[in-house]
Write a structure and sequence with these properties.
There is one protein chain. The chain is of the alpha+beta class and 149 residues long. The protein has two domains: 92 residues; 33 residues. The chain has an eight-stranded mixed β-sheet with strand order 1-6-7-8-2-3-5-4, with helices on one face. Strand 6 and strand 7 form a beta hairpin. It is extended, with a radius of gyration of 22 Å. It starts with 18 loop residues before the first strand and ends with a helix. The relative contact order is 0.15. The mean pLDDT is 85.
Length: 149
């Protein structure tokens, strides 16, 4: 091979249900769709905390923390070295966020297939009707506040 020839680039990885993800963009995409989760926080292979919550935000900021409090999860992908996908015995996939001797396991409690079916069933007319109902209720409350009888 001459100096002017470069080897062909390798294909992008293909990870299905199990594997290790190190690309922050891939981790961001996977975590962003989780919704409600059960979390287990391990430190030195011992369970430190566990509970349930909803993934509120996934972000990548070097100077911000991953926060879990009050059933809300704010996940900073820079808080972890990589994400390990594993299959549980019941067939569900869990998401292990790993950083040194710390592991944060996220087990989804919501099914994206069910969630997408629900949102697909809400057509534009139904959304417009709900919005109209909410706005008219708000106006009724405001009118009631303006005229105390």
């Amino acid at each position: 091979m001459s100096c002017n020839q470069f080897p062909q680039s390798l294909p992008a990885p293909c990870i299905i249900e199990t594997g290790t993800i190190i690309n922050p963009d891939d981790i961001y995409r996977l975590l962003g769709q989780l919704g409600r989760v059960r979390y287990i926080h391990y430190l030195d292979n011992a369970v430190r905390n566990e509970g349930e919550g909803c993934v509120q935000e996934v972000f990548a900021e070097a100077h911000q923390s991953t926060l879990i409090a009050n059933h809300a999860l704010y996940l900073n992908i820079h808080s972890f070295d990589y994400l390990q996908l594993q299959q549980l015995p019941d067939g569900r996939t869990c998401f292990d966020l790993v950083q040194d001797n710390r592991l944060l396991r996220l087990i989804p409690l919501t099914d994206p297939l069910v969630t997408s079916e629900v949102s697909a069933n809400l057509d534009d007319a139904a959304l417009e009707a709900m919005l109209t109902h909410v706005l008219s209720a708000k106006w009724d409350v405001q009118l009631d506040d303006d005229y105390p009888f």
